[in-house]
Write a structure and sequence with these properties.
Blueprint: H1 3-16, H2 21-28, H3 32-39, H4 50-57, H5 61-66, H6 76-123, H7 127-153, E1 156-158, E2 165-166, H8 170-175, E3 178-179, E4 182-186, E5 193-199
Antiparallel strand pairs: 1-2, 1-5, 3-4, 4-5
This protein binds zinc ion.
Zinc ion binds near residues 161, 187, 189 and 192.
Length: about 200
């Protein structure tokens, strides 16, 4: 898939409809930054926004995927194929990111606890052990933040109320209370705060 071509296509169609990036973002419940990311070819729309995007800008899914207007009718199956391909690719990437997140948080937690126990056992309560624990704490905090970043980037959260699947920002995830990867988040669609489950794709199978 040619992201740049798709981005340019979205931009041209948006301008043809006399919509600003902000206006389109609002209609799709995404950020303005997301629209600009698509248009610059740095990403493509999530499958959850595709139907609305196509409807608002008045093109078919196949035209979007190909980044140009297409005439003729016999392209439906091909578009479906590409869409499925996109979803499974994303799912795999997200699974890898979650694995990285777990590896980082688990390893750093073990490492942290290990260092503290070792320090206290060998050095007792001196200045040196204070310094070592302080450094270990700092490293641990950094590792947790990196883990969180992976979690923010990977997959979606599913609202318990309306089952809408949405992306949460790094900041939202940072402040949300959580139980493993299930987080207490506000749904952008129904605006209810629920215990949203982490899911790897933006649509249920
Ligand atoms: Zn909801």
């Amino acid at each position: 898939m040619n992201y740049k071509k798709i981005g340019k296509f979205i931009m041209n169609e948006r301008k043809a409809k006399k919509l600003t990036q902000a206006k389109l973002a609002e209609k799709l419940f995404v950020s303005e930054k997301t629209i600009s990311k698509w248009e610059n070819g740095k990403g493509v729309p999530d499958t959850s926004v595709l139907p609305n995007l196509c409807e608002i800008l008045g093109f078919s899914l196949n035209e979007l995927v190909n980044g140009e207007r297409i005439s003729g009718e016999n392209y439906v199956s091909k578009a479906e194929e590409k869409l499925l391909e996109m979803v499974s690719k994303e799912e795999n990437q997200n699974k890898k990111m979650m694995l990285a997140m777990w590896t980082i948080t688990m390893t750093s937690s073990l490492f942290y606890v290990g260092i503290i126990i070792l320090t206290l056992l060998t050095l007792n309560e001196g200045v040196l052990s204070g310094i070592i624990i302080a450094i270990a704490t700092l490293v641990f905090i950094v590792a947790v933040f990196i883990g969180l970043k992976f979690e923010a980037d990977a997959g979606y959260y599913e609202c318990k109320n309306c089952h809408n699947r949405f992306k949460a920002s790094y900041r939202q995830i940072l402040v949300a209370t959580h139980f493993a990867t299930t987080r207490h988040l506000k749904c952008p669609k129904c605006h209810k705060r629920t215990w949203a489950k982490k899911v790897m794709t933006d649509r249920s199978k």
